[in-house]
Amino acid sequence: MKKECIAMLLAGGQGSRLYVLTSNMAKPAVPFGGKYRIIDFPLSNCTNSGIDTVGVLTQYRPLELNSYIGSGVPWDLDSTTGGVHILPPYQGSKGGTWYKGTANAIYQNIGFIDLYDPEYVVILSGDHIYKMNYAKMVERHKAAGAACTISVMEVPWSEASRFGIMSVDENDLITEFAEKPKEPKSNLASMGIYVFSWKALRKYLEEDEADPNSENDFGKNVIPAMLGNGEVMAAYRFAGYWKDVGTLESLWDANMDMLSPESGLDLLDESWPIYARSVNAPPAFLGRTSHVSHSAFNRGSDIEGQVENSVLSPNVTIGEGARVSYSVLMPGVTVAPGAVVKYAILGENCHIGAGCQVGGAPEDVLPDVWGLTVLAPNCQVEDGRRVPPGVMLDRNGKEVSR
């Protein structure tokens, strides 16, 4: 069962900044790009990188995520000598707790990692949209003789205080690390993707768990401790497309990026496919009154209206005379005849009644009140209702604050 390298995928986050979209599901299970869910990207990266053993650490509302992953067949991760494993918190002989932080989540699964006795462990997040060859990052880790390698990319200076920021020497070895500094010394940001030498990580996880004052977090505790003890810490520079889709705006942006050839998010690249669980639905149908431009649509779609600059998931229905623009429609959404949807994210199985006005474009309203309109899964909007730009509705159609 020994493996040179395994991956541990942190997928238990609540995703509170996605508000009503994650009220009943974990953030990595949120639909993306019409065909996918967010977790498809790190799982596909593992398969394409030759990593065939993945532990998925779940916690917050895991039912839909667990069901979606199943035995890992869509990602070719159903191996009998590895494969994908769902790892929720559990009660052991010495008690048990919820995962208290990223480091504690890995600590609670030391037994699972030890089953494979790996040389290296790749730690991943389940809420990023990107394509990365982890094998190249592991090679960088080996060449540097590092205890830890952190994937980094340059970010705008104005955004640097949102990330873990590091300084490096001429060999791209890390000399300083600060978690979300108010006055960053660098714009080289951690992407939350790590490669650790397992023996070293195991030691630091045990020491971190024994510290009653620790927050049990990689960025706040484990990485600073390793750096403070003089461990070799390497940076791995990443220059491709990467986006943390932890906010409504970033989720919408990433969906729109999928429609833009200049964005760098190329999902047509056959050399690095993104795999997903297929939907059992009939072919898409475009009616005689339909008009679709610069948009993505999927199986089971029934389109009689107009769609532009939008991403439609499977089993979406757009009625005759309806108009959808600059919006993201998740699986099972229905937009009834004559309704208008602009600059919105509609959760799974929403129903927009006939003649409704949902959202609006920036030029339609005052700049200080414009924003994305977001509807929770299963929200039903009655015929003729107007839902203004920037409003968010729960599943009962009631307005909620952000």
Descriptive notes:
The structure is a single chain. The protein is α/β, with parallel strands linked by helices and 402 residues long. Helix content is 18%, strand content 27%. The protein contains eight helices and 31 strands. The protein has helices at 40-48, 63-69, 102-107, 110-116, 134-144, 198-210, 218-228, 248-257, and strands at residues 5-10, 31-32, 36-37, 53-57, 83-87, 120-125, 128-130, 148-154, 164-168, 174-179, 188-197, 233-237, 242-244, 285-286, 291-293, 302-303, 306-308, 311-312, 317-318, 323-325, 328-329, 334-335, 340-342, 344-346, 351-352, 357-359, 373-375, 380-381, 386-387, 392-393, 399-400. The strands form seven sheets. It has a seven-stranded mixed sheet with strand order 5-4-1-6-11-8-12, sandwiched between helices. A hairpin with a 5-residue loop joins strand 9 and strand 10 (174-179). It starts with a strand and ends with a strand.
List keywords for this structure.
single chain, 402 residues, 6-stranded parallel β-sheet, alpha/beta, elongated, 31 strands
Secondary structure blueprint with pairings:
Elements lengths: L4 E6 L20 E2 L3 E2 L2 H9 L4 E5 L5 H7 L13 E5 L14 H6 L2 H7 L3 E6 L2 E3 L3 H11 L3 E7 L9 E5 L5 E6 L8 E10 H13 L7 H11 L4 E5 L4 E3 L3 H10 L27 E2 L4 E3 L8 E2 L2 E3 L2 E2 L4 E2 L4 E3 L2 E2 L4 E2 L4 E3 L1 E3 L4 E2 L4 E3 L13 E3 L4 E2 L4 E2 L4 E2 L5 E2 L2
Parallel strand pairs: 1-4, 1-6, 4-5, 8-12, 14-16, 15-17, 16-19, 17-20, 18-21, 19-22, 20-23, 21-24, 22-25, 23-26, 24-27, 25-28, 26-29, 27-30
Antiparallel strand pairs: 2-3, 6-11, 7-13, 8-11, 9-10, 30-31
